[in-house]
Design brief:
The protein has 264 residues and is of the alpha/beta class. It is built from eight helices and eleven strands. The strands form two sheets. Strands 3, 4, 5, 6, 7, 8, 9, 10 and 11 form a nine-stranded mixed β-sheet that branches. Strands 1-2 form a two-stranded antiparallel ribbon.
Length: 264
């Protein structure tokens, strides 16, 4: 492990090597992994995989049989392979190295059952550039935006396959447009709030390729109990809500968030 890396113990007993100057494991990645409904025999692809944490979490819970992590940056591709090996998942997690805009089912050798994505949230010209190029690429739509990620998912998913994505609520219109354009019909959506009066900070969406229109909006997910004086902020010390507690214990959402088809 180099001086620019660190090793952390995270959820599901995973040991994760991360780059100190790159994006590190956070709430959005864990919630996306928890949002995936189990299909133990499924073949999955994770777009823009970074450290490989989303497939590692899902594989630890047997949410799918195996996964290809698609990653453009060679330094992160190396991390994915090392993290897979270090967690005993090298036989189930493999790397596709390249630009997701070039990814097709033919290049994979099959059509996927599940695709996950935690794509860059910011437009390429938004905000100040990060000192570290790897972090800037991970945050900004330099090598593909949400339309490219959804198009890639649409190309590699089989009919009826599922796409899971976490994104910013202020760009929800872009996400919905991108999914529809790629024949990914939104079927379930959850807005994530820090507390019950805070504005949402994330949106989680499950879509099905080729499905008919009809989407379930779940109850909002509130992560923390609120401060009595300022309910938009978490109380001190921070105490998770019952729903948040359940998610972090089981790496899945409570039944109220699963929609009509609770068996996945």
């Amino acid at each position: 492990m180099s001086d620019s890396e660190r090793r952390d113990y995270v959820n599901e007993n995973i040991t994760l090597t991360q780059k100190t100057d790159g994006l590190t494991f956070g709430t959005d990645a864990y919630l996306l992994a928890a949002y995936v409904k189990p299909r133990p025999k499924a073949r999955a692809v994770d777009l823009g995989s970074g450290t490989g944490i989303i497939p590692l979490l899902c594989l630890a819970r047997n949410k799918f049989a195996d996964c290809v992590a698609a990653e453009l940056q060679p330094a992160f591709g190396d991390l994915i392979l090392r993290n897979a090996e270090g967690n005993g998942m090298a036989d189930r997690l493999s790397l596709w190295s390249g630009d997701i805009r070039d990814l097709t089912a033919a290049k994979l050798g099959y059509e996927a059952d599940i695709v996950t994505a935690n794509p860059p949230y910011m437009a390429s010209n938004a905000g100040a550039a990060n000192v570290h190029e790897e972090k800037y690429i991970a945050r900004h739509e330099v090598f593909g935006g949400i339309f490219d990620f959804c198009a890639a998912a649409g190309r590699i998913l089989k009919h009826g396959g599922r796409f899971y994505c976490v994104f910013r609520p202020d760009r929800l219109a872009d996400l919905m447009s991108a999914m529809r354009e790629a024949r990914l019909e939104p079927k379930r959506m959850t807005l994530v709030h820090a507390t019950y009066t805070a504005t949402p900070s994330m949106v989680l969406v499950e879509a099905t390729k080729g499905a008919a229109p009809s989407m379930i909006i779940t109850p909002p997910l509130c992560l923390w109990k609120a401060d009595g004086q300022n309910p938009a902020k978490p109380a001190e010390p921070m105490v998770p809500t019952a729903d948040s507690d359940f998610i972090y214990e089981h790496c899945s959402f409570p039944a109220a968030f699963l929609g009509r088809n609770k068996q996945g």
